[in-house]
Amino acid sequence: MATRPVTKITEEEYLRLERAAEYKSEFIGGEVFAMPGGSFRHSVLAAKWITDFNVRLQGQSCIVFSSDVRVRTPSTGSYVYPDVSVVRGKPVAHAGSDDILTNPTVIVEVLSPSTSDYDHGTKFDLYREIPSLSDYVMVHTDTVQVDHFARQPDGSWILREYRGEDSTISLNSIDCTIRLGDVYAGLPN
Q1: pLDDT per position in the chain (189 positions), as tens?
Q2: 3-state SS track over the chain
Q3: Which of 13, 37, 46, 167 could cross-link with 83 by S-S, CB 3.0 to 4.6 Å?
């Protein structure tokens, strides 16, 4: 059985196409991948993390971004759309743009059945390229659970799992603690 050849494009071609597109796509290794839509639970969880961050980080030098802002990874030149990004300090844009972030401190991905393996694998590999990234948070939609990877001073990553509404996750890089019960409360079924 013959395989269909993969057409690869440049970063410049991707950005030109992406900025004119009606839907979002990620760019990895010269290939473009359409972003799947999210469920009600996925959308509400992402919104709750954004809201909680904005409330808890008020008065600090942090900026919270939604999934409308793409993030560029430095080594592979990939472009991805995290559900939530937080920058401590001033956001740094790629090549003078106003829609490509290069220095997130915290990234939150809300997991769905279709993207869970990708978010745990390839996407986390890409995120680890970003020197400013200190915390990678994966939020489960089907249970009250968060997987938190924290970068250590030696560059390694430690996983901590949080389960249950009374659990709290501490993101030391942005001086923020979030109780899981607050972000999981009132989710649609």
Answers
A1: 555 656 799 999 999 999 999 999 999 999 999 888 788 999 999 999 999 999 999 999 999 999 999 999 999 999 999 999 999 999 999 988 999 999 999 999 999 877 777 778 889 999 999 999 999 999 999 999 999 999 999 999 999 999 999 999 999 999 999 999 999 998 887
A2: CCCCCCCCCCHHHHHHHHHHCCCCEEEECCEEEECCCCCHHHHHHHHHHHHHHHHHCCCCCEEEECCCCEEECCCCCCEECCCEEEEECCCCEHHHCCCEECCCCEEEEECCCCCHHHHHCHHHHHHCCCCCCCEEEEECCCCCEEEEEEECCCCCEEEEEEECCCCEEEEHHHCEEEEHHHHHCCCCC
A3: 46
Q: Answer whether residue 69 is part of any domain.
A: yes
Domain that holds residue 41: 37-184
CATH number of the domain encompassing residue 114: 3.90.1570.10
Give the predicted TM-score (pTM) of the model.
Answer: 0.93
